[in-house]
Amino acid sequence: MGKAIRVLAAIFGLVFAGATALNAGLVLRSRSVLLGSGFAGEVAAPAARYHLLVILPDSDDAFFSHLLEGVMAGAGEADAAVQVERYDSSSQDGADRWFDIGVRARVDGLIMYAQQSARVAALADIARKAGVVFVAVGKDAPKYPLPCFIGSASLLQGYQGGAVLAAKLKGEARLGLILPAGGIDGPEEDYLYRGVAASVSMFKGARIVATAWSQPSPLSGEEAASSLIQDHADINAIFCANSGDSLGAAQVVVDRNLVGKVLIVGADETPELLRYLQKGIIMATVVRDSRRIGEEAIRAFSTMKSGGPAPGVIEVDSVVRLSGSPQ
């Protein structure tokens, strides 16, 4: 029995030492981590005053890449070294793990993608008690009070995209929607759905025919669009919630020779998406200014770190880019 206890003690000692070393390493890097290390730690940069940990989903959605561009653009002025950590977008566990490491290491600030969950308010409170500035960023503000949230409302995105399609098709509009991943309360409770429904309701006869949920798979857009078109032959327009699904849906329309017959309204902008837009394969895209979200996030961090007030909720506008218009 004594030998077993000694073995277990040794194992637990090693585990504890490993965890301590991990946290200690993060602390030691907190003043010298390279600016831009979230992209590549190859370019040397001077040590910064603050260590800022940015926690985002591991996604190729342009919303996140542009958001990160905004953070990095303001990092120098804020005298902050930025460390970027990604997590599997299908689970929140990875985000919570990096949050815990950041708080234990006493980083100066955390910029974290937030979904609509009571958990976000709890994390904000944990960070506050630890003396860590917490800035939540995302698309829709959580339903729970936060000292700082910066995002771009899906309700407006849906309304703008739905209005473009309804104005074009009027009472003949038969829409299929590819909604953001993570919906748990049914399509009608999704903010993007509500926005589209509000704009479509202004045209008698126009309606939403069917919906699909986006998935983490790279083929999410193609699979969802194929299913919508195959199962609902009357669909003549598809509205997508993110850039990846927009490209997938556009490819389905091309493959099925439905360009001009099934209109596509996408989200955000990438070089490939803009090419589809210029060719008329995608009719329009609703661009959320996520770069500005990143810029506002690091500005909020700097203000709060210097003792200024938390800004509360900041909503960033989105704009509609139409096919054939100057980009």
Task: Summarize the structure in words.
This protein is α/β, with parallel strands linked by helices. It has 2 domains: 31-152 and 290-316, 3-Layer(aba) Sandwich (Rossmann fold); 154-288, 3-Layer(aba) Sandwich (Rossmann fold), CATH 3.40.50. The chain is 44% helix and 20% strand. It contains 10 helices and 12 strands. The chain has helices spanning 2-29, 62-75, 93-104, 118-130, 154-169, 191-200, 220-231, 243-255, 271-279, 290-305; strands spanning 50-57, 80-87, 109-113, 133-138, 148-151, 174-179, 207-213, 237-240, 263-267, 284-288, 312-315, 318-322. The protein has a 6-stranded parallel beta sheet with strand order 2-1-3-4-5-11, with helices on both faces. The longest helix has 28 residues, at 2-29. The model is unreliable at 1-24 and 26-45 (pLDDT under 50).
